[in-house]
């Protein structure tokens, strides 16, 4: 990511590589500003220095699932200890095992996108849970969460300046560091809509890629017509521009299949006319990603937009929506016999 190296150096200095005490570092900032990207770059740079390491992506989303914290505890132990996933049924049992198995182990742990104090207390409660020299990195939008947890070392992610914003936009729009002739003014205009947010720059650039000047003018006019021009509405434009079948696959992923191995939904994609083509459109538009091991990725802000689109189908009646993803909603509808099969 453009502008990543200087930020990486700053957080490295905050961590203090030679410090043998257990260090907790909080990275905070608004959604879409690159906290996860920075944390992942830091993780990849230093994980080999530890006896065990684990990066827990999107703790907020994962903890909302059935037995979410327990599953996160199991994943944490499995990855750090390099063992098969342990079986236990309660958060308290997980805490006891974490403290017992990791207290003498030098570990690196990243809790990505945490938003509740109990998540931190149940996954990295006290410094004595981990051995000397361990590092715990927390990314969050909520600075107050870090204060409540007494995290003394913090790093605030700032928006990109105009120069870096334009460069990042151009990499996604043109695969170049600068706009080509004829696109300079429109590129400056488009990058300003993103308000310095890397996620928005990536999406707007990807949305305009491979289009001619007239298509650029038309798309920028649509951005201009957005009443309040909030980041939510700016990002939603990428969805609005999709073909119908791509929209359907996008909403399915947003509601059900984020963090799923692609092969598990391959049949669903193939069942849609030209499904693989539309799936590739979502990748090209930067609305989804596929990791090296085939896992589907989607930024939680983009996922939130997708789920809000579905929620707006029937705001007060989940049973009237095209998709229901929250397990508590499903249980409620089943108890009240409001689900038709």
Describe what this molecule looks like in 3D:
This protein is of the alpha/beta class and 341 residues long. The chain folds into three domains: 153 residues, P-loop containing nucleotide triphosphate hydrolases (Rossmann fold), CATH 3.40.50; 78 residues; 92 residues, Orthogonal Bundle (Arc Repressor Mutant, subunit A), CATH 1.10.10. It is 52% helix and 9% strand. The strands form two sheets. The chain has a five-stranded parallel sheet, sandwiched between helices. A two-stranded antiparallel sheet has the order 6-7. Strand 3, helix 6 and strand 4 form a beta-alpha-beta unit. Helix 8 packs parallel to helix 10 and helix 13 crosses helix 16. The radius of gyration is 22 Å and the shape is globular. The protein starts with a helix and ends in a 6-residue tail after the last helix. The mean pLDDT is 91.
How would you summarize this macromolecular structure in one to three sentences?
By secondary structure, this protein is of the alpha/beta class. The protein has helices spanning 4-15, 35-46, 59-63, 68-81, 91-102, 117-123, 143-148, 162-174, 184-193, 198-208, 213-225, 231-240, 244-257, 266-271, 275-284, 300-311, 327-335, and strands at 23-28, 52-56, 107-111, 135-140, 153-156, 289-290, 296-297. The termini are far apart.
